[in-house]
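seq as requested:
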Amino acid sequence: MHLVIVGGSDAGVSAALRARELDPGVDVTVVVADRYPNYSICGIPYHVSGDVPDWRSLAHRSIAELESTGMVLRLETVAQRIDAGAHEVLVAGPAGEEALGYDALVVGTGALPLRPPIAGLAGPGALGPAQGVHVLHSMGDTFAVMRTLEQRRPSSAVIVGAGYIGLEMAEALASRGLAVTQLEQRPEVLPTVDPALGALVHRELVEHGVNVRPATATTAVTRAGDGLEVRARQATGDCVSLHTEMVLVVVGVRPDARLAAEAGADLGAGGAVAVDRAMRTTLPDVFAAGDCAVTHHRLLGPAYLPLGTTAHKQGRVAGENALGGDRQVAGSLGTQVVKVFDMVAARTGLRDAEAQGAGFRPRTVAFDGDDHKAYFPGSNRVRVRTTGDAGSGRLLGMQLFGHRHAEVAKRVDIAAAAIHAGMRVEEVSDLDLSYTPPLGSPWDVVQGGAQAWVREVSGGREPTSVSHPDDRGMQGRGPL
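struct tokens:
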């Protein structure tokens, strides 16, 4: 059997490793567009900051380690077309064009950075790395950013976008001594959490010298003498003009679904490749996984949610099923965490608007608590926002914000596990969590948030209904 995998990032390599693990006799060819398979794109900001000095350290596995598993890597090779009827992929590499036959194919083409409608970023005369204007999505982009930093030695930078990567890059560039201005079109930074927590992230940025401008839409980037001019419009209608030496545009991604779509595969949520929970596309013997594919959200059904953790899981399932297995993805909850200087923000599950759109009756309750017993030195306050369904009492989501030593990431994982299991908010208090005064409390802050929700929403009483109101909305989607 010959398994061909297009894409050498998280999903593609996970699929290859799983296939070779299950059947050491299967032929696995991985088509990689560049020379950097299995690199941690999530780690790029930490190379830029200097925390990870050697970019080679970002590789999950070296090329030699990957090849030692028996997979064949076709580096600097681009998949141009899929002929689903002939079971062939046309590729172009250093030796020219070639048709690779396959018995099963996994498409892991990932995502592409969004290019917002900003004058000067597209069309004739568009500005790019040579002028100090960058996107950040690949190792090639990383090398271009580092060349600008090391050769041009800019003293200032404007970052367009204040999502996860934008925030991490604000910290990275500020730590290198640059004067950083961050522009965000939406009302507050980190729009994947509630504005109340986004405001706390905003404050942390300001305290570390970042000039934060939310509700500000960038309209143009032009050359200005030896530097660049960034023009923007605030929600008030006022215009802003900023002189800088470097611009970084990080406003999100879109699925790179072209290869599969041109072969006839159906598209789904967000324009991603439609897949079932076995990661099968609508093409025979063709699977898709990672940021190019639809995500199966445990509470929402089909969605587009590009995350590295999800890509690894999807790739593993695709690799197993490409060999004839019948495993299904359990589904994602969009669990995410980001460190911004000394503070950490995290979320899992649904926020109010998302829950309302899915047919729930959400209520969100805020709570503050200590990460460990306050009498032991070094305790930190953690802000918790707990979202549950007012009818069933089911836990729908949780958001946290606290110091980087407060184990915010592991605490959001508690909530993620509880939502995954379909627990009610009240049942979170029943979890047998660890306790010792230097590290926690008899009631963890996550449990404190759950208890605050129960007090406010149900007056301390168990909800009378424990049915799941999403059952109707999930009909036809298969078990989640």
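The CA atoms of residues 20 and 70 lie 7 Å apart.
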